[in-house]
Design brief:
Layout: H1 3-14, H2 18-33, H3 36-46, E1 53-55, E2 58-60, E3 64-66, E4 87-93, E5 106-109, E6 114-117, H4 126-138, E7 147-151, H5 162-173, E8 179-183, H6 198-213, E9 221-225, H7 231-243, E10 248-251, H8 264-270, E11 275-278, H9 282-296, E12 302-305, H10 311-319, E13 322-327, H11 329-334, H12 337-353, H13 358-361
Parallel strand pairs: 3-4, 3-13, 4-7, 7-8, 8-9, 9-10, 10-12, 12-13
Antiparallel strand pairs: 1-2, 5-6, 6-11
Helix pairs in contact: 1-2, 5-6, 6-7, 7-9, 10-12
Bound molecules: flavin mononucleotide (FMN).
């Protein structure tokens, strides 16, 4: 764990409400992101090794990116590469501004290395985020790493009108990301996860593709799944999305299921409603990555996400079929140095295991 985080930031964050701690972190990072000397200092502490891989036709310096939900309004996108991430997913963004659910809506259990959130897509809306990102581009402060945008359905829009809602946000953000993620898997927007049904998913993917057909660049469109989807439904939805022309998958979002609690404090924590992330999600997300990899046979890349908090968990995701990986919860529990420790660990695994590069390790356990 990095010294600045361990001694200065984490002790103060422990004692305040999870969402306030989160907002404080984002505000500090936003200031740092605008300041080149501060970025240099961060890079010298948190710099990560190169472990290159080309995915979606793009070169990633190493596979580990920041998962959606941390930087919902794309406020701090300049800071994340300085903390070692090789790519960044901002959002969830919805077409219309949303307050999200009532607070408190984010909970953490240090004992379980887990978070529960029921944020409900709080965000300033696609137009406002586009304005923020336009300013960043004009100021010449666009980060030099692949950027992904996570798109959710507006709460006030029903599923029949969802294809249009996603497509409008997609169109507004098209010039402000390299990769797009259709999030049909958050448990905190009523009815959203029903979009993982085959016909719905085809319509959502096709309507975004028809916007893309009118623009340049053929930017990849990924689909992010819920870990609560039964295996048969997952594979059927993946097949439908592939037939509609999707370019990749993310497994997975947070889960509404809960492990058996092993203490009173865990029992109280797990009783909170919302999506669970972090260590208890890992095994389920690995199972999904493996199932998807076996079924789609390398047709499109998979991004692994869920409880990645160490070299071993990251390696697990890669050898079961992930070309790229992401984390959220581990940033909360371990701070930014987790990015460096995971990537250094992955590099020595590759160097010591006889693989010529990372690409060769993707899915090797499934062969
Ligand atoms: C507070 C919070 C907010 C999140 N918001 C989003 C979101 O807007 N869109 C999305 O696709 N996933 C969202 N996620 C899910 C994460 O991107 C990720 O899929 C999940 O946390 C599992 O990864 P982890 O175990 O490394 O945290 C959110 C997670 C948390 C904890």
């Amino acid at each position: 764990m990095g010294l600045p985080y361990r001694f200065l930031i984490r002790p103060s964050l422990r004692f305040i409400d999870s969402e306030k701690a989160h907002n404080l972190t984002i505000n500090i990072l936003t200031k740092m992101a605008e300041n080149r000397p501060a970025q240099k200092i961060l890079s010298s502490i948190y710099g990560t090794p190169n472990l290159p891989i080309t995915v979606f036709g793009k070169l990633f310096r190493h596979p580990l990116g920041l998962a959606a939900g941390f930087d919902k309004s794309a406020q701090a996108i300049g800071a994340w590469p300085a903390l070692g991430f090789s790519w960044v997913e901002y959002g969830g963004v919805t077409r219309y501004p949303q307050e999200g659910n009532a607070k408190p809506r984010m909970f953490r259990s240090n004992k379980d290395n887990a978070l529960i959130n029921r944020m409900g897509f709080n965000n300033p809306g696609a137009q406002k985020i586009r304005d923020t990102l336009t300013q960043r581009q004009i100021a010449g402060k666009w980060p030099n790493v692949p950027i992904a945008a996570n798109i959710g359905r507006s709460k006030t829009v029903d599923n029949d009108r969802a294809p249009n809602d996603y497509a409008e946000t997609f169109g507004l953000l098209y010039d402000f990301a390299d990769i797009f993620v259709l999030n049909v898997s958050s448990p905190n927007t009523p009815g959203l996860r029903a979009l993982q049904e085959d016909d719905h998913i085809r319509d959502v993917v096709r309507s975004c593709k028809s916007v893309r057909d009118r623009r340049s660049g053929l930017k990849p469109i990924l689909l992010k799944f819920s870990p609560d989807l039964p295996r048969d439904d997952l594979l059927s939805c993946a097949g439908a999305a592939l037939s509609a022309g999707v370019d990749g998958f993310i497994a997975s979002n947070t889960t509404i299921s809960r492990p058996p609690p092993n203490s009173t404090s865990s029992r109280n924590f797990y009783a909170e409603q919302g999506g669970l992330s972090g260590r208890p999600l890992h095994d389920k997300s690995i199972q999904m990555i493996g199932d998807l990899y076996d079924s789609i046979g390398g047709k499109v890349p998979i991004v692994g996400c869920g409880g990645i908090d160490s070299t071993e968990t990251a390696w697990n995701a890669i050898r079961n079929g992930s070309s790229l990986i992401q984390l959220y919860s581990a940033m909360v529990f371990q701070g930014p140095s987790v990015v460096k420790s995971i990537t250094k660990g992955l590099k020595s695994k590759i160097d010591n295991s006889g693989f010529t590069d990372l690409q060769e390790a993707v899915g090797y356990s499934r062969a």
